[in-house]
DNA sequence: ATAGATGCAAAGGGTTTGCACTTGA
DNA sequence: TCAAGTGCAAACCCTTTGCATCTAT
């Protein structure tokens, strides 16, 4: 990503304006507000480039297609609502994971995903 | 899955003999030892059926294709070795996840995945 | 001017499905 | 016997890629 184009600006803007991790298709839909001619291929290319540059980061959730969110957030995890399928940021962490690591293994990262019903779906 | 066929027996057997979560392709390879003519389509159909029946359960790991393992194991999580890509069972759990749940949300399940180097890869 | 970026359509990789044939009960 | 199960190939869905065109520098 060496040039500044209106497509890439639009895609970067989407991540500035949306906190939850987004699917490529959602990025396309949102960025088309700025650039209606935007194609999905360009979105994929931009997502890969922006991720390589560290502007956004991939968010892999179990049984979910890969999403992306703005990079540089502080440590957090995600909550997946089983009803509306929305993904929420959870600013907390469980801590004590070190003791889960089997003897002889070395852990360098961990991922926690919570499942359940979000507040909105709960009310209904 | 109402009939007993040699294909399905072979697939069930694979899960009896292999603890770590398996990919469909691995199931095919292993089950072909019993039934060489086995097709991938049959594996997929059997995996879906066995999962529906609760004989096996899907194991969804972030950024990994869905795997399956024998159902009924006690609560555990998984460790993914970044070097050899093998998946290990971790019999422990971090506990204290309740406090991560945002106000108004209800959590009914959680998934923890640890990443790093397994003992074998560590030695090298 | 020209290398990089875009859009389209085709190609890939993994999973599912339609259909004729086979087989368990 | 005959509905359920199998194997094959085609269909699907999502992501990547080839290529002609466009455009930022």
Strand order of the largest sheet of chain A: 4-3-5
Mean pLDDT of chain A: 93
| Tally of individual domains of chain A | 2
Instruction: Determine the structural class of chain A based on helices, strands and strand pairing.
Output: alpha+beta
Helix content of chain A: 25-40%
Going by CATH, the homologous superfamily of the largest domain in chain A would be Winged helix-like DNA-binding domain superfamily/Winged helix DNA-binding domain
Please write the CATH class name of the largest domain in chain A. Mainly Alpha
Explain what you see.
Two copies of one chain form a homodimer. Chain A is an alpha+beta fold. Chain A has two domains: 6-70, Winged helix-like DNA-binding domain superfamily/Winged helix DNA-binding domain (Arc Repressor Mutant, subunit A, Orthogonal Bundle); 77-123, Ferric-uptake regulator, C-terminal dimerisarion domain (Dna Ligase, domain 1, 2-Layer Sandwich). Helices cover 31% and strands 23% of the residues of chain A. Chain A has four helices and five strands; from the N terminus they run αααβββββα. Chain A has helices spanning 6-17, 24-31, 40-53, 119-123; strands at 56-59, 67-70, 77-81, 87-90, 106-117. In chain A, strands 4-3-5 form a three-stranded mixed sheet. A two-stranded antiparallel sheet of chain A has the order 1-2. In chain A, strand 1 and strand 2 form a beta hairpin. The longest helix of chain A is centred in the middle third of the chain and has 14 residues, at 40-53. The radius of gyration of chain A is 17 Å and the shape is globular. The A-B interface holds A 58, 60-63, 66, 77, 79, 82, 88, 90, 92-97, 99-119, 122 and B 58, 60-63, 66, 77, 79, 82, 88, 90, 92-97, 99-119, 122. Strand 5 of chain A pairs antiparallel with strand 5 (106-117) of chain B, so a sheet runs across the interface. Chain A binds a DNA duplex (25 and 25 nucleotides) through helix 3.
